Amino acid sequence: MGPNLMARLFAGRLHYSWVVVAVMFVVILSSVGVRATPGVLIVPLQEAFGWNAAVISGAVSLNILLFGLVGPFAAGLIQTIGLKRTVLCSMVLLVLGAGSSAFVSEIWQLYLTWGMLVGLGSGAGMVGLATAIANRWFVHRRGLVVGLLTASNASGQLVFLPLLASLVVAHSWHIVPIVVACVILALIPVVLLMLPESPAAIGIGPFGSQEIVELPPRSGNPFAIAINGLIRGARSVDFWLLFTTFAVCGFSTNGLVATHLIPFCIDHGIPEVSAAGLLAAMGVFDLVGTTVSGYLTDRYDSRVLLFWYYGLRGLSLVALPFTHFDVVSLAIFAAFYGLDWVATVPPTVTLTNEVFGKKDAPVIVSWIVAGHQIGGALAAFGAGETRYLTGSYVPAFLASGVACLMAALMVLRIARGRSAVAVAE
What is the 8-class DSSP label of residue 344? Predict the structure, then answer.
């Protein structure tokens, strides 16, 4: 009765689809914030246990990898057990993983908690979930909705970092995972109360339509749904172009900057809390940039948008190591890079919808996002290993910038043969 009661309260005032977007925005923001917490713990864990950056980065790399690989199966799970139950299961895993990580004392425990449990739990908050919500609840403004939910996905990795870094400084690293676990625990009743399964479940049509469309009966094996989506996608050159370019997106964002920018700044004498504030500023700019990207995606060619997003990001990453890491240069980088953080997602999702149809898009886009996380995992581990072997993060940032410039050229070939692909609506 919870969602039905809430729908009656909003009836005539606001279409309930926007309430769903608001609820999921907060849930995704907080869930992904849990996953990103190790970014402020790398240095404290080194000091507490003597683990080197490469070993700790391995746990972060596992987290990022699972974060991506679980997405297609979570999309299949939505079709099998439902949207609401899938979200709740992921939140329970996050509470268990984050809460128990406060008591780690061995490196394998870090891999089990932050690596496995948090990686699996946060995977349901991926772009496939945003795509499913946009396709299920909206006829119009889908690009904007994907932009909003994607912004929460990326910004959740950044906006909480100053607070968490302050907790580390004021207390100890142990308090951080307990705090983030409590935040997720507090949001579980909100999901139970306010998240319906679909518009039809509360007797309304999606935004932009009066027609009430019942969901098809839940059936199938989530693993089979995910694998069948991969098989269908793998037959298309467009899938591999989207997969590869989005892997570069992950290589240059959550794998590199979200994980290693704070240690990179510390190498230049910048305190941890100030470096975390830099990432938080990027998160604020990302909210603006990705939302605007969704607006632009509803109106302009997605390939052209992706060309500019990847090209400008590549130039900023190449330029960063050659700045003086002073207040002005870092502020410019935070604003410029933050606006472009995951602005790539709305046009990528739109191209996936165009090529494969909205029915299969949540699963296929989840596989494309898996490429994003594979790239991120390589960057998280590779940058840590580079820092350990060479004493510098500069080669990692330069390599990421060059990869972005290459991706800018690749995206122009996406969907060129779209008319030859069967679009299953």
Answer: T
CA separation for the pair 242, 129 (Å, rounded):
18
- CA-CA distances (angstroms) from residue 178 to 29, 166, 185, 260, 268? 17, 14, 11, 23, 30
CB 263 within 8 A of CB 42: yes
Residue 380: name the closest of 6, 56, 4, 121 by CA: 56
Domain boundaries, the chain: 14-193+218-416
Q: What percent of the chain has pLDDT over 70?
A: 92
Q: Which of 246, 288, 279 is nearest to 260 (CA)?
A: 279
Query: Ranked by mean pLDDT, which of 87-101, 116-130, 150-164, 274-288 comes out on top?
Result: 87-101
Query: What is the pLDDT, as a whole number, of residue 120?
Result: 85
CB atoms within 10 A of CB 18: 16
CATH of 14-193+218-416, one of 1.10.3720.10, 1.20.1250.20, 3.30.470.20, 3.30.300.130: 1.20.1250.20
Q: Is the Cβ–Cβ distance between 281 and 338 less than 8 Å?
A: yes
176 Cβ contact partners less than 8 Å away, ≥ 6 residues apart: 37, 40, 41, 102, 164, 167, 168
**And the tokens for 318?**
């190449």
Q: 152 by DSSP, 3-state: which?
A: helix
**CA dihedral sign of residues 291, 293, 297, 300:** positive
Percent of the chain surpassing pLDDT 90: 14
Distance of CA 127 to the CA centre of its chain: 7
**Residue 181, beta-bridge partner list:** none
CA distances from 387 to 42, 392, 395, 403 (A): 13, 5, 9, 19
Joined together, the tokens standing for residue 224 give 């089979």
**How much is the pLDDT for 395?**
93
Residue 79 has pLDDT above 70, yes or no: yes
Q: How many residues does the chain have?
A: 425
Q: Find the radius of gyration of the CA atoms of the chain.
A: 20
